[in-house]
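Task 17 of the worksheet. Students: predict the tertiary structure of the chain below and write it out as structure tokens. Keep your answer in the requested format; marks are given for formatting as well as content.
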Amino acid sequence: MATKSPPPLMKKHSQTDLVSRLKTRKILGVGGEDDDGEVHRSKISQVLGNEIKFAVREPLGLRLWQFISAAIFTAVAVMAIAFPDKLYNIVFEEDTGSGKTSTRLYGGALFSISLIFWNSMYTAEKVIIRWTLLTEACYFSIHFIVTAVAVIEIGTTCFASAMLLSSCLLFILITGYFYYQVGRRTKKM
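Model answer:
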């Protein structure tokens, strides 16, 4: 008996078979939308993660504002640590002589916040930038409230405290603007 050789194997070309391609892509999860509405274009982008959605489209002036904020926080922190009496006298035009320790602790806290702001300048992650902007907005809001209460308790308004209150409001508005701009979703192209 002669043995019959098996029939030649038919090779399937998945590139030309659309149904096979769609099934394969569906099983791999490639080409579908994820929770954020991003469409994965390749297996590699799905496995490694889509870096595009983490990239921040920076609003104009964001890095300059981060630098200015970090510099202001550092300058006020150094002044509060080195010259605690002078800082209070400048703002309220009143000589108390007490509270050096609390003013120095305030300076230490400001210095810690300024280190966070300095480090946020070197990141491109949207979440970190937004958290630092939120921290700054919260700080200036609380600073405004505390200064306003102190001015009301003293009973007299001086030019320096009025400037401090108005600059706090300005900083809240600028920081809020950048917080909103960084948080906006970018349009797909």
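Marker's comment: Helices lie at 18-28, 43-48, 62-82, 84-92, 100-120, 126-154, 159-183. The mean pLDDT is 79.
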